[in-house]
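_Backbone structure tokens_
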Amino acid sequence: MRFVLLGAGVGALSLLVVHGQAGVRSSLPLPVLVAVAALAGVAAWRAQRSWWPLAAVGAAAYVWLVMWPPLLVASFFAGTALRRARDLAAYAGGAVVVVGLSALVGLVQGGEHEVATATLGNTVLMALAMIGLPLVLGLWYRARREVLEAARERAERLEREQVMRAEQARAQERARIAREMHDVVAHRVSLIVLHAGALEVRAGDEETVRAAALIGGIGREALTNLRDVLGVLRAPRPEDASPAEEGALRPPPTLGDLDRLLDQSRALGIPVTRHDEGAARPVEATVERTAYRVVQEALTNVHKHAGNAGTDVRIRYRGDELEVEVRNERPAGPREELPGAGWGLVGLRERVELLGGTLRTSAQDGGGFLVHARIPA
């Protein structure tokens, strides 16, 4: 669109320039002047692809008719396109030849043409104004554009380097966390599993054997989950993981694994009741995983803070969402609470909100506690 407007402007200005010269207007018919101006406009419109036709039309029109607009625009494009000093010198030499030929034609024709191009002052002024100044402006424009492009490339390179440094720092931090978890958490859980196995072998009554077997099973499952988490931490990006590593990871739990989770809590002495409301239907895997984690974290808090308090787990299938509600009763008698980091519900709320859902937690009037999540499904 810019070059269309440029072509139209050059054509109109060229016609205005030659039509204002009485000698040219009287010696040439108007259709010829219009055709020359239109040719200059078309050449200016095509200057985006090649500026040499515009320079040729401008040189001929200047020598013949003192039509300066196409030569002025061509000089600007020459400044933006010519990069070698030899090319610039060649263009300047050609411009001198054009000015000289125009002066000779002016001497032959006389009148306004001679005054404009054949007198020394006007010749120098026209050469500087119509060729020299546009050429300098073109050189300045090209230099400014190159500086801006270099600055943009440098900014993009710095941004890429900054992203790479951030990725490297994240990878190092993830590796450090993985090492700490392996050296501390995995070691302690492994000791729990070993002691549970020893107790299972040495215990004399069936109840202790079952409890030890349950502890050992939970510990081994925790080690498996911890191994999966460490594998994720060790891989900076999912695409960096090899197919063998991906195959080694267990699929994350979903609502299909919920009964096994509830059975583990029941085996530890917590009466847990599950209620499903609404027509069960398949939902996205991320929604099921989040719902599972809501129940898991709520039951963990029951273990820590409420002992063997009765707990109700409700899964409600709504029209466009999945509701998960875990409500426990008031614990019976005093109980020593297990230590916790205090980040469980915070992380759970972040997980739910990432899916566009809401998580509400509140203490109940009867002394119990409620965890309620609404997840778009």
